[in-house]
Specification:
The chain is 32% helix and 23% strand. It is of the alpha/beta class and 387 residues long. The chain has two domains: 2-263, Purple Acid Phosphatase, chain A, domain 2 (4-Layer Sandwich), CATH 3.60.21; 270-326, no CATH class. The protein has a six-stranded mixed sheet with strand order 6-5-4-1-15-16. A six-stranded mixed sheet has the order 7-8-9-12-14-13, with helices on one face. A three-stranded parallel sheet has the order 17-18-19. A hairpin with a 5-residue loop joins strand 15 and strand 16. The chain is globular. The model has no long low-confidence stretch (mean pLDDT 91).
């Protein structure tokens, strides 16, 4: 069976101030063409179809168009909700849409109920694990501690239990939306840390033939059977070096996997340039970036006059301007942002306690801080779902 694995469409999302709906529509057209030209047997979409729980009307219309075009091909599609989606909204009408070959899996309680698709070698069972917010699904999976690894492990127990009841030789595919250990993150993913831990080990998914992951925006291989498709478009300058693509996966009769990447259309390349303003305006080596979307980091010791306007004369698609003056390491004017770069909310809070008290938090206080951050994230998720 040949699968096309994609994820993280984020329909309705902009790139800085640029409306990406046209580029997203071009991607949908590319996906449909790929399905047709590569004789794809099934499409899997591993979450974050939309960028937010209540997407703009134009994004909903594009999603509706995508569903109709996929259904018209007669190729089954299995998709799950991600942490940006409203599972309830995305899953509306799922029972009726099933009849058209579009299988929406958004309910945590249904993780052990697969979509079963046959090919010449038997059945392939597709299990949809939508994004499982630990605080919201803890009771459903009867776990003592609400964490990503615990709820995903419980969900996979249901998958393996159902798979054990099926005919010998039944192959299996799991769709999941999660941060798996070994994956490389970018700046455009929403933090899903719980209990100070965001990542879960790939071993959680042992026992199935292929795991189609969503959430991280870079296409990457965790193991030969566990892969991220990544987002089809770049949504942050941290993705400037990404090769945006989908996975074309051949699942053989014995469950072995062969995968190749299919590139996605690039609306405009990204470039991150750095230096003094005068150097950036004069450097002939930067000519290749003049038609790119640009993030410029200025290292001038004193902020120059009208930097954006002057940059736009050479780089008309400059979208982001960052000031990072080059200073000696001990210079007291080293920016606050630089000192915070790469640090989690938990680490920043612990550093603050150490700064005002002279000593960092003890184990009990660290746990209180972690619980507070987890509660805030869980509350934000509940309010997002309820909208």
């Amino acid at each position: 069976m040949r699968l096309l694995h994609t994820s993280d469409w984020h329909l309705g999302r902009a790139f800085h101030r640029v409306n990406m709906l046209g580029a997203q529509a071009e991607f949908i057209g590319h996906l449909v063409t790929t399905v047709r030209e590569h004789a794809v047997d099934a499409v899997v979409v591993s979450g974050d179809v939309y960028d937010r729980a209540v997407p703009p009307l134009a994004a909903v219309e594009l999603f509706d168009d995508a569903l109709h075009r996929l259904a018209d091909l007669g190729v089954p599609t299995v998709m799950i909700s991600g942490n940006h989606d409203s599972a309830r909204r995305l899953g509306v009408g799922a029972g009726l849409i099933d009849r058209a070959g579009i299988h929406l899996r958004t309910e945590p309680s249904a993780v052990g109920t697969p979509v079963v698709l046959p090919d010449a070698h038997g059945d392939v069972a597709f299990y949809g694990l939508p994004y499982l917010e630990p605080a919201l699904v803890r009771d459903e999976f009867a776990v003592e501690k609400a964490g990503h690894e615990a709820v995903l492990a419980a969900a996979m127990e249901r998958v393996r239990a159902d798979l054990a009841t099926r005919a010998r030789g039944t192959r299996s595919v799991v769709l999941a939306h999660a941060f798996v250990t070994g994956g490389k993150a970018s700046d455009s993913e929403r933090d899903i840390t719980v209990g100070g831990v965001a990542a879960v080990p790939a071993g959680v998914f042992d026992g199935v033939d292929y795991v189609a992951l969503g959430h991280l925006h870079g296409c990457q291989t965790i193991t030969e059977r566990v892969r991220y498709a990544g987002s089809p478009l770049a949504y942050s300058f941290s993705e400037a070096d990404h090769r945006k693509s989908m996975w074309l996966v051949d699942l053989d009769a014995d469950g072995s996997v062969a995968a190749e990447r299919v590139d996605c259309p690039v609306p405009r390349p990204l470039a991150r340039i750095r230096g003094t303003l005068e150097d950036l305006l004069a450097d002939p080596g930067l000519a290749r970036h003049e038609e790119a979307w640009v993030e410029a980091t200025l290292t001038d010791p004193v902020r120059p006059a009208d930097p954006m306007a002057r940059l736009a004369e050479r780089f008309p698609h400059t979208l982001s301007l960052v000031f990072d003056p080059e200073r000696a390491p001990g210079d007291p004017q080293v920016s606050y942002a630089r000192r915070l770069a790469g640090r989690s909310d938990q680490q920043i809070a612990q550093d603050f306690v150490a700064h005002v008290r002279g000593a960092g938090p003890d184990l009990g206080e660290t746990a209180v801080l972690r619980e507070a951050f987890d509660a805030v994230r869980a509350d934000a998720t509940v309010r997002e779902v309820a909208r």
